[in-house]
Amino acid sequence: MAMQKIAPEQWDKNPFEAIGKDWFLLTAGTEEAGWNTMTCSWGAVGVIWNKPTVTCYVRHSRHTLGFLAQQDTFTLSFFGAEYKKALAFCGSHSGRDCDKAAEAGLHPVAIDGGMSFAEAETVIVCKKRFAADMNIADLPEEIAANFYADNDTHRMYLGEILAIYRNA
Q1: Theoretical Cys-Cys bridge with 144: which of 3, 26, 90, 139, CB 3.0 to 4.6 Å?
Q2: pLDDT tens digits, residue range 26-54?
């Protein structure tokens, strides 16, 4: 993976497209301790505590949640349109049941204490700074009914962006 490091403010992707339309893989864990990845289409990029940050949301039922709880580093990997099918696979299968990367045709690589994929166009390496569970009782009724009827809520993770890499 020939990656070039850029400053966070040099990331020129539209976050509404990159996150909501194109999706990304959130990956937690390490090569040595084990890891898992999952497809996300919810999140945010911004500044908090005077640091560049990302916010990600992971349902309690997801296998990746345990890896996020155990590690301080996680990555967001963004891909070209030709990998949409691979991301769809990673979002509809559990790492408990299969090797998602292998079955999706992705090649895992270690990067700055986390894991990503050789095929990624952009990788954001983050340090976990905060986590909080969503409380259904605090949500508007229509949100709770539309997204949490099964009570499988999200844990929100706030990550400080440590590095951004572009595939050169």
Answers
A1: 139
A2: 999 999 999 999 999 999 999 999 999 99
Task: Find tokens 């499988």 and name the residue.
Answer: 152
Please tell me the class of the 26-167 domain.
mainly beta
CA–CA dist 63, 37 (Å, integer): 8
Q: Tell the residue number behind the tokens 């560049």, with chain if given.
A: 52
51-59 and 34-40 strand pairing = unpaired
Name the residue ranges covered by the structural domains of the chain.
26-167
Amino acid (one-letter) located at 103: E
pLDDT in tens, 121-160: 999 999 999 999 999 999 999 999 999 999 999 999 999 9
Which DSSP letter does residue 166 get?
Answer: E
Number of Cβ within 10 Å of residue 23's Cβ equals: 20
Q: What's the DSSP call for residue 119?
A: T
Token pair of 146, please? 């539309």
- Tell me the residue type at 47: V
Dihedral sign of CA atoms 95, 148, 78, 33 in order? negative
| Cα angle 166, 26, 2; round to 5 | 25
Could you give the CA distance from residue 143 to residue 149 in angstroms, rounded to a whole number?
9
User: What tokens appear for 158 in the block?
Assistant: 């706030």
